[in-house]
Amino acid sequence: MTADHGTLQSRGARWSAGSDADHMRALYVQTPATLIGYALGYAVVFTLFVPLAEAGPFWLWAGAVVLLWALRLLHYLRYLRRPGADEATLLAWRRSWRVLVLLQGSLWGIAVWMFWGLGTPYDKLALILVVYAFSVSSVQLLATQPWVFLSFICAVLVPTVVRIASDTSQSGHMALAIIVTLLFCATVLMARTYVGALGQAITLKERTDELAAQLRTEVAATEEARRVADEARRAAEAANRAKTQFFAAASHDLRQPLHAMGLFAEALRQRSHDPEVASLVNSINESVDALEGLFGELLDITRIDTGGVDVNPAPLRLRELFARLRLHFEPIAFEKGLMLSFRGEQHVALADPVLLERVLRNLVSNAIRYTDDGGVLVSCRLRQRPGGDRLLLQVWDSGIGIAEASLPRIWDEFFQAQSHRPLQAHHRKGLGLGLAIVKRLAGLMEAPIGVRSRVGHGTVFSIEVPVGKAPRSFEPAAAVARVPIGLTLQGCFFVVVEDEAAVREGLVVLLQAWGARVAAFDSLEAVRAWVGAPEGGGREPPEKPDLLLVDYRLPQGQTGIDALTALRARWPGQRLPAIMITGSSLGGHEDEATTHDYHLLIKPVLPNKLRAMIAFKLGLRAQETRA
């Protein structure tokens, strides 16, 4: 606690050094919202405990509440009458403002002490929630004033902890006191983080101003110019790293609404037979698909440019790599009616597993995108070279091909090759960064890469990597069976587990529009409650689902794998097909997909891609049933 206090004090001092007067004005701007919040909190406590508390002490407390609230209001009205008050006046007002804030905190602590033993457990829970809500809300308002903040939450929470700990009439009172103490510590940590972020922003601003001043005043001197240039370079590198971190963090959050938008758009098409509506929905889905590709490409290119990609060669069994590629791309190829094949999976390469997989993913994705008939082949062959044996990995397709004049430029950023025939909309997606990423990753691995193509016949991309030595333990990956086309969702029963309300509602509406029956849940606890429903007793036992659609990231640190485990445990010995949907594009889920027997989709998922994956999974189940 002492270290946290020291951090809060030092960072709060840095904030105060900026402008005390501006800080005070900012506090007054927040006063109306604060007063409204206090009024609501007082109203809740008043409603709960006025019939329970002893009249004399209660009305004495209520009178103090009203008096302090009115003084805070008058304090604010005084500022409104003199918004242009000088700094000395504002600082004088700040002293009285702090006193009123601390007194109000003390009233909350007194409220817990007075009312804790009254009413039902629900009344006590409501009292704790109200008190802690005001402790949390004080972070934004008071965190930059360390002494005031710590005094406020101590006045609120210390009496709360002591009162709960001393309540021997209830079992578990010490455990609850410990929990409130932990919440107290978490609030302090929250304030520390908030002030730290604020201090970093101020530091960055000061650093930017400092660099600008140096650039203006020292540009004439050569040595000074070099120093400024070096600092500018470091600042640019930091900005690039920040940009990469921003894209990584924003990618997940931006994919969520895009995913929901695509689902709702498709549901709209199902409910309307207007050709113009169908055309608009197609345009929305194409835009969502294009944005998803842009997120991935921009994130990859920024990580490479900022040196955020490390190369760690290791023995890599191509059987496992091809299994992950098949797991991801077979439903996409299935949707287009293409054959996706793999050859040479018995070899072992010496390469960075993540980078080589990323290269092959980009190449296979391009091959499927630009192929309308035939198929795509991923092959590996052993080649003898003067410096030692190498593995030649190739991705073949029977697609539209690339004109010879365009071949030298296909590795450039923002270049998209033109064909002799007009390109379809799905051929023109992206920024033209996919092959630029492939070229850079191959360069990082020191793996030669090449391309051959004939317009109208197809293209083959090649990359060479060293031969690796296989580790001793090895279990071959199970082959994925091909599935029939033409499955229907009519009469199917699906279980959806998704904590984002908009996405969950969109999935339910869309699946129901396709004819399926749906049970939707927002948490692992809800799933467990459903599968645990007993037979008889007026409750229907849960129906065995035909397919599970589960979000990877669930509340309280739980994952979709936990939900799959709970659902499959309800029907042991019966295979439940599953699709896992995630907003993270950083990878790492493929091994889990193999271990826990599910297919993976990255948000945003276009409805036609979701439909293809569902058909794929239901077809696989039907094939196993016939077998």
What is shown here, in short?
The chain has 627 residues and is an alpha/beta fold. It is 60% helix and 11% strand.
Could you give the count of β-strands? 12
What proportion strand? 5-15%
| Order of neighbouring strands in the sheet with most strands | 2-4-5-7-6
Biggest sheet record: 5 strands, mixed
Relevant CATH superfamily of the largest domain: Response regulator
Mean pLDDT: 76
Oligomer: single chain
CATH topology of the largest domain: Rossmann fold
**Structural class by helix and strand composition:** alpha/beta
Based on CA atoms alone, the radius of gyration comes out at 31 Å
Give the H and E element order: HHHHHHHHHHEHEEHEEHEEEHEHEHEHEH
- C-alpha end-to-end distance: 65 Å
Shape: globular
Please write the CATH class name of the largest domain. Alpha Beta
Q: Architecture of the largest domain in CATH?
A: 3-Layer(aba) Sandwich
Approximately how much helix is present in the residues?
55-70%
